[in-house]
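Q: How would the structure tokens look for this protein?
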Amino acid sequence: MRLMDDPHLADPLTPKYQRVILKLSGESFTSSGKSGINIDETLNIAHQAKRVHARGVQLAIVIGAGNILRGAQFSAGGAVIKEATAHYMGMLATVLNGMALQSALESIHCETRLMTALRMETVAEPFIQRRALRHLEKGRIVILAGGTGNPFVTTDTAAALRARELGADILLKATKVDGVYSADPKTDPSAKRFERLTHQEAFDRNLKVLDATAFALARDTRMPIIVFSIHEPGAVAAVLAGKGRATIVE
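A: Here is the predicted structure in token form.
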């Protein structure tokens, strides 16, 4: 769904956080069950980002690439592509999503910087912590691609790491579902959605809030996490104002 501009900016929601890391899966950029980059979904993300940015939120967005490819899909079953190479291919795919989102944001008059952990100065700045902080302080939306620049590390872990590096107040994880459930709600109709959890409760219940490495980093640094559906209209602004359907882990 494509969101309109002016009605969103007139919305009275007040954010509770000043500096935010938004983790977007690759599936956020495409329609359900599809692959590739869907321009309407990409514009949806851009309008949601502009809406919270217009309220003074310093926003950095960590990009996944599951809509294009996952490194694991090329490294299983005796594939000829080496596992490390496959992971680098996945990191490169995040840059494609980052470029698409940057163009979408600039089309609605948002100043952005695309930064990547992989050096490719022709299309993006290298990620340098101090430079990223300066961009945020100057009011630019920072798009972070390339994961951590290392194979065998997920973009969840990249998001948790960048949240810590950049001094974020909270980590938002945008997914296809509206929170953390006791089981997969698509296959188990009795699955319960949690409104609020502690890090320890999520760990004890083995709930898939983030991947294990990312969750351990968030737990150890006491980083609050909000899990929500990016496909709900105005979802980012709503969860940042303490509204909407989501699960808060803190």
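The chain has a mean pLDDT of 89.

The chain has one domain: 6-249.

Upvote if useful.
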